[in-house]
Amino acid sequence: MPSTEAPISPEVQEHLRIAKRGCDELLVETEFAAKLARSHASGTPLRIKLGLDPTAPDIHLGHTVVLNKMRQLQDLGHTVIFLIGDFTSMIGDPSGRNATRPPLTPEQIHENAKTYYAQASLVLDPARTEIRYNSEWCDPLGARGLIKLASRYTVARMMEREDFTRRFKGGIPISVHEFLYPLMQGYDSVALKADLELGGTDQKFNLLVGRELQKEYGQEPQCILTMPLLEGTDGVDKMSKSKGNYIGITESPDSMFGKLMSISDTLMWKYFELLSFRSMQDIAQLQKQVNDGMNPRDTKVSLAQEIVARFHSQHAAQQALATFDARFRDGAIPEDMPEVQLGAAPLGILKVLREAGLVASGSEAQRNVEQGGVRVDGDRIDDKALQLQAGTYVVQVGKRKFARVTLTG
User: Fold this and answer.
1) Per the CB 3.0–4.6 Å rule, which of 29, 94, 354, 365 could disulfide with 350?
2) CA dist., res. 100 & res. 172, Å (int)
């Protein structure tokens, strides 16, 4: 266990407060406080690990919830390790899934990893970030090493994992290789001698495996810090490219701004806490102002501008606001509008209009398009054959009919 000899000074308490902002859980808090105190007294930075599997080529704002926390800890002087799970991606993470996740091929992993770190560097300071690939130590293990590693964790402990238990009870197959995923992720912590590992709430089990394996290898166990999963623009499911409710950090300023403005007034506050760099005191003051009658749209604008400026520039944020306002100058977007979820993207605009309840028939949909009365995210639509891809859109018919439509694949 960490030594508690170093004093928990006011500065250490402030660093602990920063670490805990917006987090779901910090285990074990007393251990982490002791690690911080020892680090402060000795001048030795803590080793803080975040592992991401390059399952898709792009990073969205949901990923940056944990990256923002890494940056906060980096700014406190600690060593952050951005770990690309090129080896574990070939296994496939079963976390939270009801079926075996297909593993990626080495070619897919290589292509996805090309842009991963470049995008993460928009949040992290690349000059102070240690980038690693877990194939560095996983490939050399070989069959003999893997068997020895597997001997250090029991099947009973593995079956404590909720998704495994649910699938086992439901008669849904669990492949043996799926047990290897949390085992290998835990071994990453051993290889890196991590003091703290970060992840989403769905990663808690895997992070705890790392603690146990470090004990098995005679290391001081890492603490774990889990961050909430960020709901996407639909306000229902966690942000995901496959759900079409994501905001990519390399999207254009106008697209990013518009999507942020489309989130609900309620969800806006969670985005502030997890994505904004404003202090919690500032955010509390904004909430008070809204409760006292300030238009929540103005507050949402400040959030959208902050995020766009972070990934583009302040000038781009100002231009995005001007473009957004110009789109809806002829008829302001209502603060509240129907939320509609439709599947089977891509979906034709005429069918979208019907299924969203904005028109009564296909002929009415066609007539509105022909007369220039249909807009999607403020842009007039004149193509009756337009296909909308997965995503969230503000769809408008005439001056008074609106719906926020989310199309999923």
Assistant:
1) 365
2) 9
Q: What pLDDT was estimated at residue 282?
A: 94
10-227 fold? Rossmann fold (3.40.50)
Say what the alpha-carbon torsion angle 358, 324, 56, 340 is, to the nearest 10 degrees. -20
Query: Taking 90 as the threshold, does the pLDDT of residue 377 lie above it?
Result: no
| Cα 129 → chain centroid | 19
Average predicted confidence (pLDDT) for the chain: 86
Which residues fall within 8 angstroms of residue 246, CB to CB, at 6 or more apart? 60, 61, 62, 232, 233, 239, 240
Using the 8-state DSSP alphabet, how is residue 105 labeled? P
**At residue 154, does pLDDT exceed 70?**
yes
Which CATH number, 3.40.250.10, 1.20.950.20, 3.40.50.700, 3.10.290.10, labels domain 339-407? Answer: 3.10.290.10
The verdict on domain 253-327 having CATH code 1.10.240 is yes
Domains of the chain by residue range: 10-227, 253-327, 339-407
Q: Which long-range contacts (CB under 8 A, 24 or more apart) does 98-105 make?
A: 98/163, 98/166, 98/167, 98/170, 98/172, 99/167, 99/172, 100/173, 100/174, 100/175, 100/178, 104/53, 104/54, 104/55
Give the position of tokens 């923002």: 68
The CB-side HSE value for 12 (13 A sphere, CA atoms) comes to 22
Please give the DSSP secondary-structure letter assigned to residue 228: P
148 labelled binding-site residue: no
Rounded Cα–Cα distance for residues 352 and 65 (Å)? 32
Residue 80 has a pLDDT of 95
Q: How many Å apart are CA 93 and CA 293, to the nearest integer?
A: 46
Q: What percent of the chain has pLDDT over 70?
A: 93
Confidence of residue 333 (pLDDT cuts 50, 70, 90): low
CA distance 253 to 316: 6
Q: Are 213 and 157 in contact (CB under 8 A)?
A: no
Closest CA to 257 of 303, 297, 304, 300: 304
